[in-house]
TrEMBL record:
This is ABC transporter ATP-binding protein. GO terms for molecular function: ATP binding. InterPro entries: AAA+_ATPase (IPR003593), ABC_AA/LPS_Transport (IPR051120), ABC_transporter-like_ATP-bd (IPR003439), BCA_ABC_TP_C (IPR032823), P-loop_NTPase (IPR027417). Gene3D superfamilies: P-loop containing nucleotide triphosphate hydrolases. Keywords: ATP-binding, Nucleotide-binding, Transport. The keyword Nucleotide-binding applies.
Amino acid sequence: MTDVLLDVRNLHKSFGALKATDDVSLTLRTGEIHALIGPNGAGKSTLIKQIAGGLRSDSGSVHFAGQDVTPMTTVQRARAGLGRTFQISSLAMEYTVLQNAVLGALGQSGRVMRFFAPVMRQQKLREEAMRALELVGLADHAAKRTADLSHGQRRQLEVAVALTLRPKVFLMDEPMAGLGASGSKEMTGFLDGLRREAPILLVEHDMDAVFALADRISVLVYGQIIASGTAAEIKADPQVRVAYLGEEDAA
Ligand SMILES: Nc1ncnc2c1ncn2[C@@H]1O[C@H](COP(=O)(O)OP(=O)(O)OP(=O)(O)O)[C@@H](O)[C@H]1O
C-alpha cells in the first residue's frame, strides 16, 4: 500500500536460546495508531529497539518511507524521521523546558551543555523548540524548570524533544507508565491529536488507552504476532483471549 510509512519484515532476534522476536512483520500507515500489546517478556521492547536501530536484528529488514534503513544506526534512522520518545532520565531536570527542547532540536546529547549559551542564541533552534512545545501544549511552561513539571508534562516534553527532529513516525514504549488514571486519560487525548503530526507505533500495557486509541492492534506472544486487527477483532479473537486477555477480561 502506498500509505505504508513503516514496513517491518520478518525480524528475528535471539538472546542465546531465547527467541525474543521470531519472524515479526508489521506496518504503520499514515495517520494511524498501531498498538503492540502482549504479556511481559513477549518481546515488545526488543522489537521497538530493532526498529529504532539500538539493537541489531539477526535477520529481517526495516523499510521506512520507501527506504531500506536496516543497515542504518539509531542516529541515522532518527535523522531520517524515525522518532523514538526518550526516557525521562534523558531530560535535564535542572534546565528549563525550553532548554530541553532546544537540546532536542540540536539532536545532541547532554554533553553539549557547555556550548549551551551560544546555542540558545540561535533563533532557528529556539523557533523549532517553541513549535514543538506548542504542539504538545507546553509553550506556557517554556521558562519553567523541568523538575517542576508534573510526571505527565515531562512525558509530553519527551514527545516535544522528539518532535523537534520532525519525525515522520513515532515509536513509543509505554508512554502511560506511572501516570495514574487521570494522567493516562490526559495522555490518551494528547496522543490522539499527535497522530495528525505523525503516526504512532505504540507499545502499551494500559488496555483502556489501547482500545481507545488504536486503529489496529497486534498481539505479540513469545516473540510472535498471534493476531492483528481492530480492537473489536482483537477482543473477539479466541487465541488472544486464551493467550493474553484472559477469558474473563475479554468477555
Ligand atoms: N539484552 C538482553 N539479553 C538477554 N535477554 C534479553 C535481553 N533483552 C531482553 N531479553 C529477554 O527477551 C525477552 C523479551 O524481552 P522484552 O523486554 O522485549 O519483552 P517485553 O514484551 O517488552 O516485556 P515487558 O512488557 O515486561 O516490558 C525476555 O525474556 C527478556 O528477558
